[in-house]
Amino acid sequence: MNPVLRIDVFFDFICPWCLIGKRQLERALVQLRASRAEVKVELVWHGVQLLPDMPVQGEPFAEFYRQRLGSTEAVRLRQAQVQQAAAAAGVEIDLTRIARMPNTADAHRLLACAAGLGSAAQREALLERLFAAYFHNGEDLGDTASLLAIAEACGFEPAQLAPSLRGDGSPFVGEAAGMAGNGVPYFVFDRRLAVSGAQPAEVLLGAMTEALAHAARQPA
Question: Start and end of every DSBA-like thioredoxin domain (predicted)?
């Protein structure tokens, strides 16, 4: 029987490090498949709403970060750090287009509902498109119409997903409830080995290799 590696990823759409971590994970998976083609990977994404108290209409992006970090200069330095890390990972992030820090509850509800619909390729496309909507296009991930349009572009039927969207800013409570304290991105390999942060692909590949080796040592 071919080995199976389950990877759980905990993330929020507004976190640039989650998009960077996604790219690093993709690189690590390419390397894993090149060396261990027999391994079947089960990749599961878990939404974590980092700002559950965010108003339904969101807040002005620039002002949110000025208050959070203390000064315009601190924001500039943090954004430069993010842009540098993104460029190194091959990630396109355009922070200048983001007008609002959104409430991501409904974006997470949309993805969670879509998890039981469509194909794996459609679900991956939806995840990627939601990230792109925010970090590439500056779209409002708290807007119901925008979310349904994104889903439709990925091949989903909006009528099937619309009931999952509340539009009231109520917090998203998914299966990852309580994980926000661990920070995101947060990777768990084979339900036992955790890696926190947007680590390089080599670190993630090492964790995969270790998890597979541990599973191989277990009695059949």
Answer: 7-207
Confirm or reject CATH 3.40.30.10 for domain 1-48+176-220, answering yes or no: yes
Rounded to whole angstroms, the Cα distance separating 79 from 204 reads: 24
**The whole model's pTM is what?**
0.93
Given a contact cutoff of 8 angstroms between Cβ atoms, the answer to whether 10 and 48 are in contact is yes
pLDDT at 1 > cutoff 90: no
Calpha distance 155→135 (Å, rounded)? 21
Closest among 151, 145, 168 to 112, alpha carbons compared: 151
* pLDDT band of 177, cuts 50, 70, 90: low
Strand ranges for the chain from DSSP E: 4-11, 40-47, 59-60, 100-101, 186-189, 193-196
Res. 107: pLDDT tops 90: yes
